[in-house]
C-alpha cells in the first residue's frame, strides 16, 4: 500500500482555549524537526487535525518509527490519498484500499465519511450508506457492524480524498516545549535516562549534568553518558550536557568526612551544583532517577537529606517504581543496552562499605563543616570548568 500521508491524533489535554493553538504549533514544529532528515513533508493543520503529507520519496518504516518518538502524538493513521473526488473513483479506490489492507479474511466494517468540503454533492450519511453497500457487494467476506466494527474505514473528502482505518499507537504525553525546561542529573545507570524520558514526555525540554571523576572514571564512562543523552534526545530534542569535573570535591569529602556519610554528602554537593547550573540555564526543576529504597542513598531519610539543599523542585519520576518496571521502560526507549555497559561511575569508586541508611541531617551538616576551608573554591572551580557537549541524534 502506498501511504502518502499520515493523520496525527493528539490528546485533548492541553488543547483547550487559546492554549490549543500554542500546543498545536509546537507539536507541528516538533513533527517537522523529527522528520527533517527523512524526506520532504508538508505539515498541514486544518479543522483541528494535523496531516503530514509526503512530498518526496520516503521510507515508511523509518517515518513511523520517528513519529512514534514525538511526544504529544497519541495515534498515527497512515493515509491513502486519492486525487479525484468523483464518487465513482472514490468507490474504486475504497475497494483497492480494503483489498490491499485486509484481503480475503472475514471481518466486520463500517464506513465513516466526513466532508471537509460541504459543497460536495452527497451528504456524509449518503456516502456511508452507498459506499457501504458497494463494498458489501464487492467482498463476500465482510459484514457491516455499525456499533463495534473490526475495521472503521474513514473517508475524508476535501480537495482530495483520504482513506484511513489503522491507528498506530504514539508516544502520548505533551509536545516538548510546552512545559519549560529541567536539568536532568544523568549518570551512566539505568534509572536516570528513564527519568529524563518520563519528564520530557510531559512536554519538558531537557538539559543534563554529569559528574565525572577522572582519572577514577574513564573516558569511556563519560562517552557512555554522552551516548545515553543522545538516545534520550531522540525523544526530547537536543540536550546540552554539562560535564562537571567532580574529582577534587570527592577527594575532599573522602579525606575530611566520615566514610559512611560519603555518598550522602557527595549527593548533596551534586544537587547543589546541579541547581546552580539549572538556574544559570533557565531550568525550573531538577530531575533524578531515584527510587525509594533502591540503595542506601535512596531511603526516605537519605532522600530527605539530599533534598534539603535544593530550593527548586526535584522531580523523581521513578520514585515509586520497581527496578524491573524501570528496566522495561529503558528497554522500550533503547537506553538499556548502553546503560548496562560495565564502566565504573563516580559513586561506585568512592563508596563506603557500610553507608548510613538513616542519616540525620544535623549530623551530616556537622560533617560538611569540616570542608569549610576549601569547599567553596572547589565548587566554584567545578562550575567554572564545566565542559558542555551538545547531545543530539
Ligand atoms: P542510575 O541508574 O540513574 O545511575 P542509581 O540507581 O545508580 O541510578 P544512584 O547512583 O544513587 O542511583 O544515583 C541516584 C541518582 O543521582 C541518579 O539516578 C542520577 O539522577 C543521579 N546521579 C548519580 N550519579 C550521578 C553522576 N555521576 N552524574 C549525574 N547524576 C548522577
Ligand atoms: Mg548510578
Q: List the bound ligands.
A: adenosine-5'-triphosphate, magnesium ion
Count the helices. How many? 14
Largest sheet features: 9 strands, mixed
From the spread of the alpha carbons, the general shape counts as: elongated
- Which percent bin holds the helix content? 40-55%
Number of β-strand runs:
15
Would you list the SSEs in sequence order as H and E?
Answer: EHEEHEHEHEEEEEHEHEHHEHEHHHHHE
Mean pLDDT: 93
Low-confidence stretches: none
Q: How does the helix and strand content classify structurally?
A: alpha/beta
Give a verbal description of the structure.
This protein is an alpha/beta fold and 393 residues long. It is 40% helix and 21% strand. It has helices at 19-35, 60-67, 87-102, 124-138, 191-200, 219-236, 247-256, 262-280, 300-307, 323-332, 336-339, 346-349, 361-369, 375-384, and strands at 5-10, 41-46, 49-54, 73-82, 107-115, 142-144, 151-157, 161-164, 168-169, 181-185, 205-212, 239-245, 285-287, 314-315, 387-391. The strands form 2 sheets. Strands 1, 2, 3, 4, 5, 6, 7, 8 and 9 form a 9-stranded mixed β-sheet that branches. It has a 6-stranded mixed β-sheet with strand order 14-13-10-11-12-15, sandwiched between helices. Helix 7 runs antiparallel to helix 8 and helix 8 (262-280) packs across helix 9 (300-307). Bound molecules: adenosine-5'-triphosphate and magnesium ion. Magnesium ion is lined by residues 187, 189, 345, 347.
Amino acid at each position: 500500500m502506498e501511504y502518502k500521508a499520515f493523520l496525527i491524533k493528539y490528546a485533548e489535554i492541553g488543547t483547550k482555549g487559546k492554549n490549543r493553538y500554542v500546543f498545536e504549533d509546537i507539536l507541528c514544529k516538533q513533527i517537522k524537526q523529527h522528520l527533517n532528515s527523512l524526506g520532504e513533508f508538508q505539515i498541514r493543520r486544518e479543522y483541528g487535525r494535523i496531516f503530514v503529507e509526503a512530498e518526496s520519496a520516503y521510507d515508511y518504516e523509518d517515518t513511523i518509527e520517528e513519529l512514534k518518538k514525538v511526544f504529544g502524538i497519541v495515534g498515527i493513521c497512515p493515509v491513502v490519498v486519492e486525487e479525484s473526488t468523483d464518487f465513482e473513483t472514490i468507490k474504486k479506490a475504497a475497494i483497492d484500499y480494503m483489498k490491499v489492507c485486509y484481503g480475503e479474511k472475514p471481518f466486520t466494517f463500517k464506513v465513516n465519511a466526513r466532508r471537509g468540503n460541504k459543497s460536495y454533492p452527497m451528504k456524509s450519511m449518503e456516502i456511508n450508506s452507498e459506499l457501504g453497500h458497494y463494498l458489501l457487494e464487492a467482498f463476500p467476506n465482510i459484514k457491516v457492524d455499525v456499533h463495534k466494527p473490526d475495521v472503521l474505514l474513514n473517508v475524508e473528502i476535501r480537495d482530495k480524498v483520504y482513506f484511513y482505518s489503522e491507528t498506530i499507537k504514539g508516544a502520548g504525553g505533551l509536545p516538548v516545549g510546552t512545559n519549560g525546561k529541567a536539568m536532568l542529573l544523568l549518570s551512566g545507570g539505568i534509572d536516570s535516562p528513564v527519568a529524563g524520558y518520563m519528564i520530557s514526555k510531559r512536554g519538558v525540554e531537557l538539559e543534563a549534568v554529569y559528574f565525572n571523576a577522572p582519572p577514577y572514571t574513564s573516558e569511556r564512562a563519560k562517552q557512555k553518558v554522552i551516548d545515553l543523552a543522545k538516545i534520550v534526545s531522540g525523544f526530547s530534542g537536543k540536550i546540552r550536557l554539562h560535564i562537571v569535573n567532580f574529582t577534587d570535591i570527592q577527594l575532599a569529602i573522602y579525606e575530611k568526612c566520615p566514610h559512611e556519610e560519603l555518598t550522602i554528602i557527595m549527593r548533596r554537593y551534586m544537587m547543589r551544583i546541579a541547581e546552580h547550573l539549572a538556574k544559570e540555564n533557565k531550568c525550573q526543576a531538577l530531575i533524578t532517577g531515584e527510587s525509594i529504597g533502591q540503595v542506601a542513598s535512596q531511603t526516605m531519610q537519605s532522600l530527605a537529606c539530599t533534598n534539603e539543599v535544593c530550593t527548586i523542585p526535584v522531580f523523581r519520576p521513578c520514585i515509586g517504581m520497581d527496578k524491573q518496571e524501570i528496566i522495561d521502560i529503558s528497554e522500550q526507549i533503547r537506553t538499556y543496552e548502553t546503560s548496562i555497559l560495565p564502566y565504573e561511575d563516580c559513586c561506585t569508586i568512592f563508596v563506603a562499605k557500610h553507608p548510613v541508611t538513616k542519616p540525620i541531617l544535623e549530623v551530616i551538616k556537622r560533617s560538611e563543616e569540616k570542608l569549610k576551608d576549601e569547599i567553596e573554591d572547589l565548587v566554584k572551580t567545578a562550575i567554572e570548568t564545566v565542559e558542555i557537549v551538545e547531545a543530539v541524534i
